[in-house]
Amino acid sequence: MEREAAELFEEFKELTASEFFRRNKQMLGFSGKIRSLTMVFHELITNSLDAAEEAGIQPEITIDLKRVDKDHYILKHTDNGPGIPKKFITKVYCTMFAGSKFRNIQSRGQQGLGCSGCVLLSQMTTGKPAKAVSGYYEGEKLKGVEMTFKMDVKKNQGLILDSKEVEVKNTGVSIELHFKDVSYSLSEQGAFEYIRRTMIANPHAKIRFRDPTGHKFIFERATDVIPPLPKEVLPHPRGVTADDLIFMAKHTDKRRFRSLLTSSLSRMSTKRVNEIEEATGIDLNKRPKDMKWEEAEKIVDLFSQMDFMAPPTSGLIPIGKDQIEKGMREILNPEFISTTTRKPKTYRGGVAFVIEAGISYGGDSGRLVGEQKKAEIMRFANRVPLTFDQGSCAITEALKSIDWKRYGIRDLDNAPITVFVNIVSTNVPYLSTGKQSIAPEAEILHEVRQATMKIARSLQKYIRAKKAAKEEALRSKIFENLVPVIIREAALLAETDVPEYDSVLAKVTRKAKFENIELESEGEDE
Amino acid sequence: MEREAAELFEEFKELTASEFFRRNKQMLGFSGKIRSLTMVFHELITNSLDAAEEAGIQPEITIDLKRVDKDHYILKHTDNGPGIPKKFITKVYCTMFAGSKFRNIQSRGQQGLGCSGCVLLSQMTTGKPAKAVSGYYEGEKLKGVEMTFKMDVKKNQGLILDSKEVEVKNTGVSIELHFKDVSYSLSEQGAFEYIRRTMIANPHAKIRFRDPTGHKFIFERATDVIPPLPKEVLPHPRGVTADDLIFMAKHTDKRRFRSLLTSSLSRMSTKRVNEIEEATGIDLNKRPKDMKWEEAEKIVDLFSQMDFMAPPTSGLIPIGKDQIEKGMREILNPEFISTTTRKPKTYRGGVAFVIEAGISYGGDSGRLVGEQKKAEIMRFANRVPLTFDQGSCAITEALKSIDWKRYGIRDLDNAPITVFVNIVSTNVPYLSTGKQSIAPEAEILHEVRQATMKIARSLQKYIRAKKAAKEEALRSKIFENLVPVIIREAALLAETDVPEYDSVLAKVTRKAKFENIELESEGEDE
Fold first, then answer.
1. For a FRET experiment, which of A189, A337, B256, B434 has its CA 20 to 30 Å from that of B86?
2. Does A82 contact B154 at a Cβ distance shorter than 8 Å?
3. What is the mean pLDDT of residues B32-39?
């Protein structure tokens, strides 16, 4: 009954990326009704924020979610970004692994899967085409196009059903998609919470949202400061592998390896290249294609021994401790808050990243479970909320490894606390295609711990001071109650009049002035 | 400072699947040194077991892991499967999203990413080509080919450096790959534990492993029973979506929709098709390409109301409770064991699956952490160990939701217990590309709970009986110790001789016969 190889290979096939993800939509994060809809919000919001910021526009997003029937919705998502030129519309929405974000730049999206994933899910659940209206400048002229299209899954490209010029008032994209088998929820993993968290990390954005009941929410800007545009930075020598060098060498148009090095890597001067040539004995005037693996490896080895300036941090734009505080105050209205933005560090030798953290206590901090407040961990990557796969995420792991008792928090799970952590990087090491958890790189774990312990210390001081003030107040109260009695009884015994004691007592009992307790100002420590 | 759309789209690119995963290797499970090597073992072992079983061969795998330097290894992986015909070798090892497993069949691999992912990792870390020797039958003739190749990432295909005919003694594939930045570990997530767990779920396989210290491990078969070959089954009507019907209709060679239905779905007779035609009023003689979404949706709606026989289960081959017991006994040598295989159920309306579970107590059950035994959860999908992303997996979630105290286990985490759970399906709903966790479908959660609670009840009886026997033994002991004293003292008081009491005492004190306590036999319950 043994079968031979040829028979088993009769069915050998190649799939396109769209076909592959059509069979494996859970890999795009589309699993479960609530999660699927949240992922759609995630992809579209992320894309809109990136596009607006890249174009230097203050982002403003309008989302209208209509309920057609149980688990059946029509979503209209409109932004004020730069728009998409006509010929790229179906590429953006129907071709997987296509995108403009494959550069070494800090952006929310990185993978060329987001928008096309939403169209795929819409098509898989309703068979309906997508409708997009794009307004964009071509030279001085504002153009508008309305396009109706489907995704041809076998070809991984768009199939245009209708396309016409329309008049538009401003730039931006509006996309309308039908979905079934998805569900709008107010839970922690639902679409509404996703918007709320987005607003905490993006206080410069404005979002209008009409929910399926017709209720309109307007999340106003908490700040008018537009975050500076992250710059594309060349990879740092410490961050490249031998494989990267060989790959660059294979696909460059430079004629010599030395010019490839200076033009493709940061911190790489002609002087540096000469040093490399001398130390390795490799002729760097050779053509890039003639570079051998062993030579590339030798160069990368040398990189790890040479002193380089740290990667340029112009490519990294953190939210900033003040902006995080504004965002958290606006949404959580807490009793106490402490935030920090760390200095840039690198992981894997040369990929720069920044960790920011905030901790808030009281007010709307924490999440309400039944009648009880539980601690809430909000994870972000480049300002994007990470809602799922909490268990396997480096941020969760780092927070769990902290001995919270040392910071006066006996039971983190049951404290009215929100912990905010954002990782900023041109290259966030996601663990899965769904972009919901961060790989546990040692340097990232370390930085998350350091940032959180620092703000936890501030919280500890606050909690201690609050407790001390309470005790002080209690002591004063006892004084205030007993002193008059003692004075009266003493006067009675001494057979004199009761003296006037109010002003004296007021001097003795100091009311706890809790509001005035000063916390140490938070600078960067290491 | 606003920028226009055309400028932003200058950098718009399309990537191949290989390029995409080269930039996102963590999505293939390659993150961290230990995990990366375990994933390589996983992909190669999985592929070998599938290939051998598909060809009806008892699997035998030989793995040789040589350490060249710190974090630098050469892996040679040899199987006795049917081999790969020459023209498919680079397709299997160098083209992503290509494979022979995209059918509706229960197999370990499903995604056409595994082997090519290993070659990609090897190339990315060492720049070395891969070397494969394949022995395969072409008609009656045993052919052998040795090929050295690299992956052309920009083209997502192989680049053959050398290819020659060689003499081989039998069928099978041997692949040799170099890796750097990986690490062999004996930890729970390491490569050795991966082999051990594979042997528990595949007691019919044999694996020889030479570890980097040169030590040879031979994992012998615990059974000679070859698992029956799973059959390819047509999708069940309850398991298809409107999108599936439209997709089938678009890519079929059938001339009429009615013949497409009967030939593409299981449980679909001409009589059934006539019923559908009558109930929906749709002319099923129309050409498949003319089928509209609304019509497909109407048909799928009707499917959900019609009574169908359950999906054919010939496509599902569980390990079986006896075989699981053999596997667990061989590897864990436990004091007590209970196993169960549930009846097939469906999730998402029509995807059939089976849950199997085993629980073992004592012996080598549990994992040793320091000096203490901790509970160990072994998750499997189609006999493949799932080693990572435990937190987000439906199996973990279901096990955690069980009230273990009800089964006499006060503290599951600290019990010397191994819980084994295997999900068998033609279509395992993985949460991520790394295939390490199962989506929390309600029906799957339910079945895992039911299976585990059933075997937990057996364990409870065992633990109770063991406790009762201990107490009984204690009582007997007291009797045995005290009765002679009483008799002797009574004789002294009565001034008579001490009578012979041994035989009487033996009758009174029943020794606890722990070994003979019978546990109820385990049938299927619901």
1. B434
2. no
3. 92
